[in-house]
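SEQUENCE-TO-STRUCTURE ENTRY
===========================

Backbone structure tokens: a row of integers, each naming the local backbone shape at its residue.

Task: work out the structure tokens from the sequence, keeping to the layout shown below.
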Amino acid sequence: MIDLDGDLLAGAGEALGSSSQQEVIDWALRQALAACERRKGALRRLRAMAADGAIDSEFLSDKRNYRR
């Protein structure tokens, strides 16, 4: 048993065109999982770029370059 914000759940259901609380919750969980997977993929790509020398870490660590 969990306590959910009823207004939030109803609003999400309306936005999704769903009257089922289960559908809304499942959709939200799928979206959260997909967002995490996208972030992990982006981090893997950044690490690969850094390993290949495509990222200038000295340039990035120099704070004078932040506002260029």
User: Anything to note?
Assistant: The chain is about 70% helix and 0% strand. The chain has a mean pLDDT of 91. The radius of gyration is 20 Å.
